[in-house]
C-alpha cells in the first residue's frame, strides 16, 4: 500500500520550495489549541524536510469559513505548531497573491512558513484551476500529509497533485499503513460508533458503512437527526431535520444488511449550551420543547457498552455528546473507558479517529490504550467504506 505512490524517500528536497498540505484543523478554545495530536503527527514530515534543507510552505484549512474572518485564522495554530516542532514558524496573511509570494521569496533553506487558511478563498473548495495555478506558483513540489482531509477534492488537497510533482508525507504513509493493518480484514463482529456534529457531511457515508459493519451505534448530533426521523421530539437539539429521509433510508439499508442500529434510548437535556448548566436525564417521549440533548443518558451508556462487549473490532468517529463541557462528557468518557479496558484485556481491536474524537479520548485519559488512533474522522470512515479518497488517489497517478 505505502509504496503505490512516491514518498519523501523519492525526492531530494534540498533548496526546493515544498508545498506541504497538512491538517491544522485542531480543537481550539479561547484562541488556544486544546488538543495538539494533529500537530504532533505532522511534525516528522515538517522536521524532515526542514532538516534536509527544503523550504517548508504549509497549506491548511481551519473550520468552515464563508470568506475571510478572524475567528478562523491559522495564526494561533501556527504559533502552537512552532511550540510542538520546536522551530520557528513564520506566518503569511494570505495563501496566494503578493503577500504569499513575498513571504515565500524571503525564505531560506530549512525555513518553515505557514500560509493563512486556504478556505478564506471559496475557490479552494471548488478546486478552481486558476486558484490551483496560483498556489502552484509558490512551490516546486507538493507533499500531501493531510490524510484527515484526503476525502476532500479541494485545490490544496487534490488539485495541486495534478500541477506539481506529488509525494506522500510521513503521516499520510503511516495512517494508510496502520489502518490497512488494523482494518483491511477486520475481525468480526465489527461495530462502529458515529457521533459528533458534522451531520450533513457524514450522514451519507453511513449508507455504505452499514453494509460493512455488524452494528452501528449512533450518538451525538447525528443521533438527534435519526431520532427526529423516527418521530421523537428533540426540542432545540442540534438536528438536521431535512435529512430525516436520508436517516430512514439508512435504517432500512442497515436492516437489509443485517446491521443492528443502536440509537439512544434516553438523553441528558439542558436548556443552555454551557458547561455545568443544570441538566437532567429524560426518556425520549419527554424531551422538553426548549431543551437540548447534549449527551446520551445512563441507559444508553449501558447499551453502548453492551454493544462494545459484543464486538471484536470497534471503529469510532464522533463524540456521543458535547464532551468539551462537563457533565456532557459522561457518555463519551464511559464508552471510551469501556473500549479501552476491553482493548487492554485483548478482547477488542479499537480504532478511533477525528480531531474532536481524539481530543475526547485524551480527555478520558485512554487514547494510548486504543489499538490505533487516526488523525482522521470523516476521511477514515470513507476509507473504511472502501471509497477512493481524492487526496490519496492523486498521489498514485
Ligand atoms: N448532542 C450534541 N449536541 C451538540 N454538539 C454535539 C453533540 N454531541 C457531540 N457534539 C459535538 O460534536 C463535535 C465533534 O464532531 P465532529 O467534528 O463530527 O467530530 P470529529 O472532529 O472527531 O470528526 C464536538 O465538538 C461535540 O461537542
Ligand atoms: O477535521 C476534519 O475532519 P473530521 O472532523 O472528520 O476529523 C478535517 O480537517 C476535514 O475538515 P472538513 O470536514 O471541514 O472538510
Automatic annotation (TrEMBL):
The record lists ATP as bound by 202, 324, 354-357
Q: Which residues bind (2R)-3-phosphoglycerate?
A: 38, 119, 152
Checking PROSITE patterns in the record gives: PGLYCERATE_KINASE
The molecule here is called: Phosphoglycerate kinase
Coiled coil listed as a keyword? no
Q: Which GO terms describe its cellular component?
A: cytosol
What is the reaction catalyzed?
A: (2R)-3-phosphoglycerate + ATP = (2R)-3-phospho-glyceroyl phosphate + ADP
The EC number on file is 2.7.2.3
Under the subunit heading, UniProt states:
Monomer.
Which PANTHER family does the record cross-reference, listed alphabetically? PHOSPHOGLYCERATE KINASE (PTHR11406), PHOSPHOGLYCERATE KINASE 1, CHLOROPLASTIC-RELATED (PTHR11406:SF23)
Q: Which organism is it from?
A: Tardiphaga robiniae
State which pathway it belongs to: Carbohydrate degradation; glycolysis; pyruvate from D-glyceraldehyde 3-phosphate: step 2/5
- Please give the family membership noted in the entry: Belongs to the phosphoglycerate kinase family.
What gene does this protein come from? Answer: pgk
Where, per UniProt, does this protein localize? Cytoplasm
Molecular function terms in GO for this entry? ADP binding; ATP binding; phosphoglycerate kinase activity
For biological process, the GO terms are: gluconeogenesis; glycolytic process
Main location as per UniProt: cytoplasm
UniProt keyword list: ATP-binding, Cytoplasm, Glycolysis, Kinase, Nucleotide-binding, Transferase
Q: Where does substrate bind?
A: 23-25, 38, 61-64, 119, 152
Tell me the superkingdom of the source: Bacteria
Amino acid at each position: 500500500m505505502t509504496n503505490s505512490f512516491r514518498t519523501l524517500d523519492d525526492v531530494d528536497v534540498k533548496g526546493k520550495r515544498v508545498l506541504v498540505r497538512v491538517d491544522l484543523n485542531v480543537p481550539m478554545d479561547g484562541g488556544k489549541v486544546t488538543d495538539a495530536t494533529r500537530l504532533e503527527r505532522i511534525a516528522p514530515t515538517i522536521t524532515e524536510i526542514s532538516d534536509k534543507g527544503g523550504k517548508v510552505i504549509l497549506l491548511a484549512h481551519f473550520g468552515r469559513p464563508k470568506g475571510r474572518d478572524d475567528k478562523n485564522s491559522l495564526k494561533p495554530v501556527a504559533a502552537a505548531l512552532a511550540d510542538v516542532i520546536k522551530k520557528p514558524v513564520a506566518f503569511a496573511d494570505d495563501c496566494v497573491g503578493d503577500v504569499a509570494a513575498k513571504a515565500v521569496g524571503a525564505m531560506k533553506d530549512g525555513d518553515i512558513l505557514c500560509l493563512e487558511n486556504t478556505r478564506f478563498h471559496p475557490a479552494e473548495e471548488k478546486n478552481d484551476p486558476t486558484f490551483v495555478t496560483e498556489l502552484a506558483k509558490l512551490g516546486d513540489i507538493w507533499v500531501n500529509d493531510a490524510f484527515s482531509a484526503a476525502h476532500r477534492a479541494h485545490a490544496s488537497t487534490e488539485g495541486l497533485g495534478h500541477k506539481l510533482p506529488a509525494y506522500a508525507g510521513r503521516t499520510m504513509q503511516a495512517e494508510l499503513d496502520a489502518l490497512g493493518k488494523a482494518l483491511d480484514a477486520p475481525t468480526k463482529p465489527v461495530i462502529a460508533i458515529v457521533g459528533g456534529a458534522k451531520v450533513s457531511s457524514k450522514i451519507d457515508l453511513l449508507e455504505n458503512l452499514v453494509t460493512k459493519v455488524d452494528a452501528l451505534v449512533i450518538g451525538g448530533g447525528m443521533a438527534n437527526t435519526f431520532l427526529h426521523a423516527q418521530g421523537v421530539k428533540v426540542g432545540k437539539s442540534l438536528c438536521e431535520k431535512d435529512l430525516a429521509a436520508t436517516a430512514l433510508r439508512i435504517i432500512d439499508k442497515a436492516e437489509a444488511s443485517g446491521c443492528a442500529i443502536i440509537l439512544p434510548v434516553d438523553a441528558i437535556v439542558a436548556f443552555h449550551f454551557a458547561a455545568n448548566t443544570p441538566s437532567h436525564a429524560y426518556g425520549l417521549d419527554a424531551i422538553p420543547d426548549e431543551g437540548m440533548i447534549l449527551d446520551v443518558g445512563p441507559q444508553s451508556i449501558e447499551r453502548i457498552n453492551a454493544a462494545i462487549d459484543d464486538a471484536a473490532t470497534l471503529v469510532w468517529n464522533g463524540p456521543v455528546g458535547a464532551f468539551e463541557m462537563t457533565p456532557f462528557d459522561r457518555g463519551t468518557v464511559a464508552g471510551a473507558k469501556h473500549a479501552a479496558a476491553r482493548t487492554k484485556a485483548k478482547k477488542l481491536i479499537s480504532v478511533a479517529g477525528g480531531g474532536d474524537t481524539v481530543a475526547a479520548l485524551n480527555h478520558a485519559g485512554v487514547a494510548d490504550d486504543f489499538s490505533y488512533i487516526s488523525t482522521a474522522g470523516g476521511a477514515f470512515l470513507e476509507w473504511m467504506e472502501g471509497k477512493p479518497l481524492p487526496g490519496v488517489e492523486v498521489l498514485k497517478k
